[in-house]
Amino acid sequence: MTDMEKMYQELGISKKVWEFGEKVEKKLAERFQEFDRTAEYNQLKVLHAMQKNKVNEACFNYVSGYGYNDMGRDTLEAVYASAFHTEAALVRPQITCGTHALALALSAILRPGDELLSPVGKPYDTLEEVIGIRQSKGSLAEYGITYKQVELLEDGYFDYPAIERALNDRTKLVTIQRSKGYQTRPSYSVEKIGELIAFIKARRPDIICMVDNCYGEFVERIEPSDVGADMIVGSLIKNPGGGLAPIGGYIAGKEELIESCAYRLTSPGLGREVGASLGVMTSFYQGFFLAPTVTCGALKGAVFAANIYEQLGYTVVPDGKESRHDIIQAVKLGTPEGVIAFCKGIQAAAPVDSYVSPEPWAMPGYDSDVIMAAGAFVQGSSIELSADGPIKPPYAVYFQGGLTWYHAKLGILKSVQAMLDAGVLEEDRVV
Ligand SMILES: *Cc1c(COP(=O)(O)O)cnc(C)c1O
């Protein structure tokens, strides 16, 4: 027995599962190299943005109170704008999460009588309450903002004639979700998003195109802001926070739009000028600096998971060979027991709370029970190794993250082991 094999055994991985993992990993060398090259490119992009904006030691100072002249905060926003090639950015701990960032962007731009259009089908679950698809206090619907959605074609891509028909005089903003989220449609490449934006702008250049960029940052060499998006929006406890940001969200885009978002976030008249950074700046900068590498590790984990579960006979989205446009890996396990065992395995691999056992639970913002596996340094952080499974058909689990590839690998092997141990996966399928 090699020392490596022994170490895995100490962590509860049987010889059979370990050997299976080694066999699958060997075939992925070329894919992994491609991810490393993207990370290298994006690392240089971030470094360039930091150098250009003269990031310096004073950027890490603790600022409290109103936060006037919070130099660290203002410089970080310039760094994001440079890295994403936008005119401006809002990057704040006062933006509490991705949903908040998206709700902020929507409510900053839309006015009573305006219409919001999603040309990519149903948005992320938590957005349903923001928009008012599911009745909710404070939704856009309560403010007289209407919503239209164009369903996707069979292949998961855009129904251009229907999108054209859906545009009307009241359409003010189009929201495009890059990642599949809790669905089994494809996540979209930046190139495809660019085509969709060009189609809309050719018909109505005045429409604001916003991209929900959650889970997409640094997966490719370009971002939706490079292909015509007026605003891109995301969470700092996903890719761009690099695992270090303890909270936060960002909106990057056109100066005029970012200004509106700032007035909505704080107050008319105050805008970007207030909002002290309260000592989180070091983690925001350092997290952004690490984000390309961390995202790369998460991508390796996702592709490894896809190939492992494909080999075991499950349907995986994306499949083991497809190109990647976000860090999420969906695995259709087909039964509640499968979803639960998978998540218990991921939990058992965690550096934090590895000894607890997750159970399905009703979560705010979701319309079914959800089981969540996360043993994270930052609560709920999904750039850290995590898995979520809504307990409803098709009983798919959504796996993402891993601050390091090695941890992601252990997590996936643990999930296989847990499924074997629970008897939801037969021994003879692990070959
Ligand atoms: C995670 C996510 C959100 C919401 O972000 P939270 O930080 O969980 O509020 C929105 N859209 C997509 C596509 C996401 O993946």
From TrEMBL:
UniProt superkingdom: Bacteria
Organism: Faecalicatena acetigenes
Name used for this protein in its record: Methionine gamma-lyase family protein
InterPro entries reported for this sequence: Met_g_lyase_put, PyrdxlP-dep_Trfase, PyrdxlP-dep_Trfase_major
Pfam family, one: Met_gamma_lyase
Record-linked SUPFAM superfamilies: PLP-dependent transferases
PANTHER family for the chain: CYS OR MET METABOLISM PYRIDOXAL-PHOSPHATE-DEPENDENT ENZYME
